[in-house]
């Protein structure tokens, strides 16, 4: 589906993640961006920051892709992937670091919200897409219509399974105190469970 993410680099980021991620995770990443960008525009986010936010949202689950299935937690692998991607475009290091932090911390409640604008907005976008944040006050029919263009496709189960599969192959990717660790522990406690993980 044709979408403009506010700049050539962000548009290229979309083309890249679309080529390596499961479709449900691509749609989720776009929905996270739609919410985060909506909130960012209301806060007066500048054009370059908006493009950086788009890249962060698009790459925030890139660590679940086979192409980025390294030894670190999927959040860190995705953050490293985004940094490598942006380095090919010569982006300034401080902005690349903000993108890295936004991705690496997006499953860290109480931390992401205090690490700056990009980490906070990505975290809010993720929470909103999984129903943990009430957007009823957003009062924006265009946002609702845009979100509806990208169906969920069972994202909770798809993402949970992707993270658990990595953790089963490499337990170091799912430390006990982390969100991946919670998903893995739930699977190990009930190996026959199908569908959305109770730890989601």
From TrEMBL:
Transmembrane segments: none annotated. InterPro entries: HD/PDEase_dom (IPR003607), HD_domain (IPR006674). Residues 26-117 form the HD domain. It comes from the Bacteria. CDD domains: HDc. This is Phosphohydrolase. The lineage of its organism: Bacteria, Bacillati, Actinomycetota, Actinomycetes, Kitasatosporales.
């Amino acid at each position: 589906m044709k979408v403009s993410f506010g700049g050539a680099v962000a548009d290229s980021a979309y083309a890249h993640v679309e080529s390596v991620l499961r479709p449900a995770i691509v749609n989720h990443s776009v929905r996270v961006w739609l919410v985060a960008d909506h909130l960012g525009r209301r806060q007066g986010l500048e054009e370059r920051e908006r493009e950086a936010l788009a890249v962060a949202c698009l790459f925030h689950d890139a660590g679940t892709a086979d192409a980025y299935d390294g030894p670190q937690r999927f959040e860190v692998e995705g953050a490293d992937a985004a940094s490598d991607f942006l380095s090919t475009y010569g982006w300034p290091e401080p902005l690349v670091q903000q993108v890295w932090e936004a991705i690496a911390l997006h499953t860290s409640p109480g931390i992401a919200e205090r690490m700056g604008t990009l980490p906070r907005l990505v975290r809010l976008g993720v929470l909103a897409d999984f129903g943990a944040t009430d957007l009823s006050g957003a009062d924006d029919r265009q946002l609702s219509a845009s979100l509806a263009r990208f169906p969920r496709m069972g994202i909770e189960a798809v993402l949970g399974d992707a993270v658990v599969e990595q953790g089963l192959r490499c337990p170091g990717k799912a430390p006990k105190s982390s969100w991946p660790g919670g998903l893995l522990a739930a699977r190990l406690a009930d190996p026959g469970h199908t569908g959305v993980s109770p730890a989601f």
